[in-house]
């Protein structure tokens, strides 16, 4: 199995510089733009290491920094800084000081490649395609006709090209359910269109569901 890394860096020169170096290694890299998206990304796939752009981390107004920090404790982590005027890419491992620079390539080869990939998924997801009406506001949003890509008892991944805010509320009406009561969701992570060679959309958790909907969901699963 190829080594897969998660890079947390806003779009820009720094992310491009990190990806250029990583493209020369035999590894796969997924990118997200905010530490808030770590939870959803690591539920979606197993990784062997996290690479975090320091300015991105500093600018993040994360709603649950404790959970992000707990997740980071379970992986090899390298904090990165990019300054083309002062040596390009500098790496700082957990517990190190600014003077304890780590080389990005050396970190990947010696700490990430040997590390068994892991995720934090608590329930398995099934590849279930439900036809759904996705809305961000029940009163004023006409909704987006779309589909689920996979579903678990706790949440699902919904195809969407809309740019959603992390932790935003949303609702879906599932055409295949006999009970058409809107199901309240919470956006936990997102994958923007064009950000990677993967399906764009949002990872959501179910915040409310009627008993009949829950029973019917289990029958599909």
- Label the structural class: alpha+beta
The string of secondary-structure elements, in order, is EHEHEHHEEEHEEEEEEH
- Rg computed from alpha carbons, rounded to a whole number of angstroms: 19 Å
- Main sheet properties: 6 strands, mixed
> Which class of the largest domain in CATH terms?
Alpha Beta
- The level of helicity is 10-25%
Supply the CATH architecture of the largest domain.
3-Layer(aba) Sandwich
Give the termini distance in whole angstroms: 28 Å
Question: How many domain modules?
Answer: 2
Spatially, the strands of the biggest sheet line up as 2-1-3-4-5-6
Shape: elongated
CATH fold node name of the largest domain: Rossmann fold
Number of helices: 6
Overall mean pLDDT stands at 85
Amount of beta strand? 25-35%
Mind explaining what this structure looks like?
The structure is a single chain. The protein is elongated, with a radius of gyration of 19 Å. By secondary structure, it is of the alpha+beta class. It has six helices and twelve strands. The protein starts with a strand and ends with a helix. It has two domains: 3-112, Response regulator (Rossmann fold, 3-Layer(aba) Sandwich); 131-220, predicted glycosyltransferase like domains (Thrombin, subunit H), CATH 2.40.10.
């Amino acid at each position: 199995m190829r080594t897969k890394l998660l890079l947390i860096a806003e779009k820009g020169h720094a992310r491009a510089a990190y990806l250029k170096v990583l493209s020369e290694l035999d590894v796969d890299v997924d990118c997200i733009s905010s530490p808030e998206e770590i939870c959803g990304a690591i539920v979606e796939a197993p990784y062997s290491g996290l690479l975090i752009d320091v300015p991105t981390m500093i600018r993040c107004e994360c709603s649950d920094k404790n959970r992000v920090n707990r997740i980071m404790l379970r992986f090899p982590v390298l904090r990165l800084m990019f300054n083309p005027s002062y040596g390009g890419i500098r790496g700082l491992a957990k517990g190190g000081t600014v003077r304890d620079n780590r080389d990005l390539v050396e970190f990947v080869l010696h700490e990430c490649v040997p590390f068994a990939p892991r995720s934090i998924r608590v329930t398995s997801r099934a590849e279930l395609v439900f036809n759904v009406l996705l809305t961000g506001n029940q009163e004023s949003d006409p909704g987006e006709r779309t589909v689920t890509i996979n579903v678990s008892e706790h949440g699902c991944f919904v195809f969407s090209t809309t740019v959603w805010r992390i932790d935003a509320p949303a609702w879906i009406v599932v055409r295949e359910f006999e009970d058409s009561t809107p199901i309240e969701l919470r956006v936990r992570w997102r994958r923007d269109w064009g950000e990677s060679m993967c399906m764009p959309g949002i990872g959501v958790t179910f915040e409310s569901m009627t008993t009949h909907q829950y029973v019917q969901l289990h029958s599909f699963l």
